[in-house]
Request: fold
Amino acid sequence: MTMKTEVSRRAVLAGTAAGTAALAVPGVLRAQTKTVKIGILQPVTGALAYDGQQGQIGAEAAIKAINDAGGIKSLGGAKLEMVFGDARSTPEGGTAEVERMQAEGVVGIVGGFASPICLAASQAAARYDLPYIVDVGVADSIVTRGLKNTFRFGPGFGMVTKTALANLAKLNDEAGKPAKTVVLVHEDGLFGAGLAKLMQAELPKLGFEILDTIAHPTPARDMSNIALQIRSKNPDLVIPSSYYGEFALLARTMQQQRIKPKGIYAVLNGAASNYRFVKEFNEAAQFVMDCNHWHDPRKPVAEALRKQVEASGKFWTYNIPLNYSCVGLLADAIEKAGSTDKAKVTEALAASTYAGHIMPYGPTKFVDGQNQGGAPVNTQVQGNDIKVIFPSDFADAKPVFPRPA
Amino acid sequence: MIRAYGPALALIALAALVPFAVSANTVLNFVVFALIIALAAQGWNLLGGLAGQFSFGHAAFFGTGAYAAAILQTRYGVNAWAAFACGIALAGAVGWIIGFLSFRSGLRGSYFALVTLAFAEVFRILANASSVTGGAAGTLVKLDVRPENFQFASRGAFVWIAVALVGFVLLMTIAISRSRFGAWLTAVRENEDAARALGVDTLSVKLKAITLSAAITGAAGALYVQYYLYLDAGIAYGAWISVEALIAPIVGGIGTAFGPVLGAVALHVFGEVAKAVAGGIPGIDLVLYGLLLVATIAFAPDGLMGLLKRLARRKAQETR
Reply:
């Protein structure tokens, strides 16, 4: 019990300090503030640990870059200070960390990764009108709840599926319509099941025949049965929506059993645009296409960051540029607000036209918290690299479809 | 009377003072979560501890309470407080049905445990696939902070509600263990055949126990959703809550009234302390937490209540 009162006393002190700071006259604040605290929330333990760690890399790199470039200039060069929280891959873990970050006096929070964490954490932040920028979470409900504090920089689920379907039709048309039949493989959670449902409704309209829809749980340890089902249906195209482990397993099993459809077209797949997959299962990964978040290869900062990450022995995944950009977005809003006042930062975010990010989106424009420019791109594994094949104005490779036998 | 209920009342009064003593929301948030787990654990303890029917699937009740409370509000516009009550009732009903199906066919011990586990899994898969529950996208209760919506601006209000619920169940558990029903439960736990031979209607006793147990754990689920406002199949019917509900009484002291509360609070305080001590490396606090758990089980096999009793006895002997 004594321990508890000690913790609370300290927390109360921290809270009071933060409160006084926030209430202080802006002029005084400007003179006194040397650092601006921002919250970085990622699931670095539990089932989503890998993605969380990748997100953390991006956020840390952005904070370092901003601080090296002179911090927040409108606040007299105040440096960003990271308050990191481990969401433990659960919504209540995320909520607990939001409470702590609020007590430590952060100006805004970036991250969450998975939709359930983003939903719960942004709601907890909304109680304090604390700005919350979603890094990945694609559930459409994140931005349709009418929360004023919540912003999503990347595309939501609806946008991703729309793009994925449009590009699939284009890809098939340009290749002379080699694909007519499809088998859907999806994980039975939020994004896999939702995606499969949309695909089932939309693919027939585009002239594809769905031969089968196969669901699997996450985690799944064996994909042989699914591979055998695919073999028996012999589709032209396999559309998988799974997390990293399951898709890597499926791709490898298909390769072992020599199941070679004309193409594998993944949507928001955990593996298909992940260099770890390309490196560890290169043969199985060849010509796998994905529609996913991806950095803008035309931007030098993006490529430099990628080199830097790879030089440190880490794999490049979309979490890194997304978090890098989201931290940049928050810093830009603080810069524009010229204040650490939460309401002013929220206002600056809502009016944001931030173009310094490294995603292929153009300047930000938020409508009801959703960045209108946020869109996925299509990638394809070619050799040892992941190439952008759509949209064509910044694609760095031509799609290889149908894949060579 | 005072000897039986005094400590519980004192504890409840003390817990109710927490929101006055502490204003940090971080701490209050922690207290609410620990109490939600304590409530779920109290439910488990009634069936597993008092009646000796170990369940591995209390998630089935937690999830039913939570989903009912959430869906009635979001889909049918039922008042949040009424939805909360319906959630408890429905969880109790599910408890009765599962109990009826398994106890009637004479399932005991590990077979009963496995059946409850299976029920929870089936519920999880159904909730994940059904459109009523929002499928895999889950159910979101709209953030609308008004007392009539069972949503409060201050975390302190939630602490009071959680304390009231946990306190009520605590007193009820003490009352049950002092009652004739409590004696029947003990009889069923110690030797079911002997109990039946002595004229105890074991089926009815076990059914009452599982219904009550399910309702209590369902209340924890309904409170969870009211607090976090988001639910998906993995949260509602996931194995995590079955494990939490079972491990808290084991650590605290199976079959005792205070055990589940003590266990849940101690475990989560352990967790927080480990987090504060560890810092730096992600996950190291979980390792520390695991070690503490092992140490507790190793040195206090009867749980913390057992340990306290042993210490008290030793002290009494020393003073003699």
The longest strand of chain A covers residues 35-42. The longest helix of chain A spans residues 2-23. The mean pLDDT of chain A is 89. Chain A has two domains: 2-155+299-374, 158-292+378-390.
